[in-house]
Specification:
Two copies of one chain form a homodimer. The first copy, chain A, is α/β, with parallel strands linked by helices and 298 residues long. Chain A has eight helices and 15 strands. Chain A folds into two domains: 154 residues, Rossmann fold; 122 residues, Rossmann fold (3-Layer(aba) Sandwich).
Chain lengths: 298, 298
């Protein structure tokens, strides 16, 4: 599903955290890449220099804000500000993984609603349009004053499994919040979908999963989520599926943060593989969101 | 020189990077500290919660942005934004060390002028007033739309040496840019001052110091600078002073970043000690800027 598209005069600036993805998008929409000189000073400050003219151009900055979030976010801000200062007529920020998006409300009195600050910061440097992928909660987009859109990479993940012979696999959401995601994958894998009921004990903070019988005996299953962080929820889901007699079980997500021992935890619980997208670069980012972003820009 | 001062109704929020300094300032001006719950999520995101009421209050947030700059800067922004959102009538940001202040102009075409972005970010979260200490270049302050002031900690550093029997010590600036600093210390130590001529070779990037005879034979000398980063310039200065027969040589600065092996480099070049302020917390931040900031807030 990679195709070449014509786009109005646009230049792409791949930021340090998304160099490969930025180049892929530029290739797909056949536009110029503005190379960037990037280094870290010995004290840890980022140095950024654009090696190309962008005066009067529509510029797309591609920079994810996966860990190290703060550094990647600051580079995004420095870059967008520089692009604007150097005379770009319009700046689109493509931020495949938007950091702090889960801190979206004041759960306790006095808390910083961090995603609101991140939105303000992005807007303060003159970004005209934001594109992200599978933001944790869609409602957050409404808080932007600028155009802000979240694309879904779930179809791309489902197609990845389809190509690997997983047609008819069952799509499982590890909790109720991910049901909308598996509806999308089920439209492609067509093996039915379900979800687990997860509850956090308000006193101990412990997460309990209420186990219901799923129609998975002897069948392949993919557990889909937007983010895999420490991997606990996914590992529990995989274990339950194996106990219920599932054949092969895969873990898939858009944003494979995979903190600490997440990969080992998931694999040792019985998963065949962990598949993510290049919203979070790294060895699990095997599915590229470049076609998705290229289409949205086109 | 620690004294108690009366200030209008103000509350101080010490940020995670300046907890001790924030508390010292609050003690000196005798105002309430608003405690902060702070943690890092496993993926590296900062969580901040104010445990006290600040509605309608003038709030002073104290948070330095020394390394890790990006994380400390983001915490500053999250904190100021939260304080404003929670109803503070006025927010003063005390940022003892201002990150990215040395990236203050476009040395090469296409470069990000990072300090300009940092200024925009600070202003975007509703900060009404900024206080910093020995900003690398005073001119940068003019770029703020809000009230912005840089205090000098040089007298505090000089007094530290005065109390340790260094009256009459020679004040040396390691380069021409630091001359204004040693004029301030000389007003207290009264042993005369001078500077070294430093030149960067435009082709090799190597730094050469032109050695002139200084009046230091048999005398105590303190080398003063605003920032000590990798320590190369200071170590060279100390070596030259020892070669010219100086007795005891000390290195002192406001912002002891001391990257990598800087401390060893300076000590092994012959320095007796390295003295810094708590603008950059750590074992070399022995001189507190709390009285300086307390006075400016008073």
């Amino acid at each position: 599903m990679w195709r070449l598209m014509e786009v109005e005069c646009v230049k792409i600036v791949p930021g340090p955290a998304s160099i490969e993805l930025g180049r892929k998008i530029a290739h797909l929409i056949d536009v110029e890449v503005v190379p960037l000189t990037f280094k870290l000073f010995p004290d840890g400050e980022s140095y950024l220099r654009l090696d190309g003219d962008i005066k009067g151009e529509e510029v797309v900055v591609v920079q994810t804000t996966s860990p190290p979030q703060d550094t990647n976010l600051l580079q995004l801000l420095l870059l967008c500000d520089a692009v604007k200062e150097l005379g770009a007529s319009e700046v689109t920020a493509v931020v495949p993984y938007l950091a702090y998006a889960r801190q979206d409300k004041r759960f306790l009195q006095g808390e910083a609603v961090s995603v609101n600050t991140v939105i303000e910061l992005i807007q303060s440097v003159g970004v005209d349009r934001l594109l992200t992928v599978n933001i944790h909660k869609e409602e957050v987009l409404e808080r932007f004053d600028i155009s802000a859109e979240s694309l879904s990479a779930m179809p791309l993940l489902a197609e990845y499994f389809l190509k690997r012979g997983l047609a008819g696999a069952f799509s499982l959401a590890p909790d109720r919040g991910a049901v909308e995601l598996v509806k999308e994958t089920d439209a492609i894998l067509k093996g039915g979908f379900g979800w687990l009921k997860k509850e956090r004990d308000r006193i101990t903070g412990e997460i309990k999963v209420e186990v219901e019988e799923l129609e998975v005996r002897g069948r392949d299953v993919v557990v889909f989520d937007d983010i895999i962080s420490t991997g606990g929820t996914i590992a529990t889901s995989v274990r339950i599926l194996k106990q219920q007699g599932a054949r092969r079980v895969y873990a898939a997500c858009v944003h494979p943060l995979l903190i600490g021992g997440a990969e080992e935890k998931i694999i040792s619980s019985g998963a065949e593989d962990i598949v993510g997208t290049d919203c979070v670069p790294g060895k699990r980012g095997v599915v590229s969101v470049a076609p998705l972003i290229a289409e949205a820009l086109g």
